[in-house]
């Protein structure tokens, strides 16, 4: 037998340790990218909800023509979102919930907004 390997039984353990550390770093980067993507998608869903609610409130007040929830759905669709719920409230307010059509690995992003006349 070769005595060189018998004297160093832990030979090559540094390679295994470095590979394990590289795998941990790669997994941390992937998780960070997924969380960043989710944050961007949540922001897009919130913006779509805001714009849809504002457009629906304008329609409810008679500033634009059309049915408020249909207008909200059209505005949300232009921002790659779908209206999940749309309801008219007291004081000529409209509440809209949207969900982005595109999904991430962590699920669908949703947004909620309420709009009405200025105070």
Q: Which key features would you list for this structure?
A:
alpha+beta
In short:
With 119 residues, the chain is an alpha+beta fold. The protein is built from 3 helices and 3 strands. Strand 1 and strand 2 form a beta hairpin.
What do you see in this structure?
- The protein is α+β, with helices and mostly antiparallel strands and 119 residues long.
- It has helices at 3-7, 13-61, 68-78, and strands at residues 81-89, 93-104, 107-115.
- The protein has a 3-stranded antiparallel sheet with strand order 1-2-3.
- Helix 2 (13-61) runs antiparallel to helix 3.
- The longest helix has 49 residues, at 13-61.
- 25% of the residues are buried.
Mean pLDDT: 89
Proportion of residues in extended strands: 25-35%
Radius of gyration over all CA atoms, rounded: 26 Å
Number of helices: 3
Q: Tell me how many strands there are.
A: 3
Question: Helical residue percent?
Answer: 40-55%
Strand order of the largest sheet: 1-2-3
Report on the biggest sheet: 3 strands, antiparallel
How would the blueprint of this fold be written?
Layout: H1 3-7, H2 13-61, H3 68-78, E1 81-89, E2 93-104, E3 107-115
Antiparallel strand pairs: 1-2, 2-3
Helix pairs in contact: 2-3
């Amino acid at each position: 037998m070769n005595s060189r390997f018998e004297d160093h039984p832990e030979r090559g353990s540094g390679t295994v340790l470095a590979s394990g550390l590289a795998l941990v770093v790669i997994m941390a980067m992937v998780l960070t990218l997924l969380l960043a993507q989710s944050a961007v998608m949540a922001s897009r869903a919130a913006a779509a909800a805001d714009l849809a609610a504002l457009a629906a409130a304008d329609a409810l007040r008679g500033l634009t023509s059309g049915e408020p929830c249909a207008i909200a759905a059209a505005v949300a669709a232009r921002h790659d979102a779908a209206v999940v719920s749309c309801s008219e409230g007291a004081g000529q307010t409209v509440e809209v919930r949207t969900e982005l059509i595109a999904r991430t690995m962590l699920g669908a992003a949703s947004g909620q907004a309420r709009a009405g006349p200025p105070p």
